[in-house]
Amino acid sequence: MPSLPARPDFQQLRHQARDLLRAAQGGDAAALARVHAVGTEVGLANAQLAVAREYGFASWARLKAEVDRREILDDVDAAGLADLLAREPRLAVAEMTQWCDHPLGASPLDYVAMLRYDTSRDVWRDVPGAAPLAHVLLAAGAPVDGEPGGPETPLITAASYGDAEVAQVLIQAGADLEATSSPTSGGVPGGTALLHAAVFGMTAVVDVLVKAGARVGDLVIGAAAGDISGWPLGEASPQQRLLALIMAADHERLAVIEALVAAGTPVDGVDEIWGRHPLRLAAANGRPASVQRLLALGADPNQRDADGLTPLDLCRAGRSHHAAGTGHAEVERILEPITAPEPS
């Protein structure tokens, strides 16, 4: 079954139906088989129905409604969404299962929570108007915690994709702060929204969740939140302290970085499980304040990862996936003069 593109064009779908009809009327066996799979008459209505069924929709009208919903959500049109849901209330909750980049399916609220990632360009960007979309969906009956048994709640999705404004709307609507993702989730299986935001470097969402009362369960998450006072560093294992340093670097928690290095955490330590390194991660995610602080504490700008990439290389790679305005340009300016050329 084909999937709709990230931004489906209804005119293109009409052309597909007309092309199918012309081929069937011309005696093409494959086209005739497609049309006859839905009805005996070789006409436009059955050609349209065949195209709709091939995309997984029960009717041509259902396919058009889905395309309309995608366009409205992608255009961040809250007024248009309210009008659509007044005509088609089911679209507030009906899964968007034909979105090619979400094989588990996505509810409209999940889709809104994922808008910061532009699948068509493979770029992260800010979407200031997404929060009003969430308001409209919730008012139309979208469940704030998603359907029971889903892979993750909309709040976890917003945390993973870094939309703090959508996360705030969901929290105000009563979202469960301590809900966890399923074991089969593609994010952090069994993790809360706070853990997802921490692991994926979504600092603004971390701050929103902590302020709302999300539980900070250990030293590593405390480092992401910027407060490790509840965990005596002398009682933490070297691995815990290293993971905390990596997390603090990713979230630009400078005082935490200082405290962990002062406690003996190696500034150039590498996480044994994921291969993460404080300076490389800070560079890859465009964290200039962390990069400067780690360098001042002795981090090596020329330490390469398993693929031979320096922090500068990782910064440049990360910059290509972010819209303008991130810290990658500043990180590149810091690292470029002190990065040695690759050995020949």
Automatic annotation (TrEMBL):
The keyword Repeat applies. InterPro entries: Ankyrin_rpt, Ankyrin_rpt-contain_sf, Multifunctional_regulatory. It holds the Pfam family Ank_2. Keywords: ANK repeat, Repeat. ANK repeats lie at residues 150-182, 274-306. This is Uncharacterized protein. It comes from Pseudofrankia asymbiotica. The lineage of its organism: Bacteria, Bacillati, Actinomycetota, Actinomycetes, Frankiales.
